[in-house]
Structures are given as C-alpha cells and as structure tokens.
Design a protein that fits this description.
mainly alpha
C-alpha cells in the first residue's frame, strides 16, 4: 500500500489506529500505546463496538487503567 497525500495518510491512521490502540490496551502494551499516541493516536478513539482503549484496559484488567484515568482526567480538566 502506498499513500501519496496527507489526506490518504490521515484516512489510513483513522482506520487503523483505533484497532491498534485497543489491541495494545488489551495486551497491556504500555510502550505500544504510548508510541501510537505520539504518532497521532487519540485516547478517545473507539473500536467497532464503540469502546475506547480505556474500556478495553478496564475489561482486560491491565495496568493501563490508571494511566488512562489520569490522562482522561487531565485532558478534561485542561481541555
């Protein structure tokens, strides 16, 4: 696959990042989720069921729950 414009790259990221971020959250892959965030991922992205990485981390019981809670609270407080 070859992306030639910023718009195409944005569409690819919008399609892949939610699944990748939720997968990383389920696996407890802190470094993976951090890298995806640095590359433009968003903690509020949802998967096909409307679940965010926070939902997935909570359901999986991973340590990411505390990380996401603090990030979500800070983002809401400081908008």
């Amino acid at each position: 696959m070859k992306a030639s414009t910023e718009a195409e790259i944005h569409l690819i990221k919008a399609s892949l990042f939610p699944c990748l971020m939720c997968s990383a959250a389920k696996e407890g892959n802190f470094q993976g989720i951090k890298k995806l965030k640095e590359d433009g991922g968003d903690y509020s992205m949802t998967d096909y069921d409307g679940r965010t990485p926070l939902h997935i981390a909570a359901a999986a019981g991973t340590f990411l729950l505390k990380f996401y809670e603090s990030k979500m609270l800070r983002s809401r407080a400081f908008g």
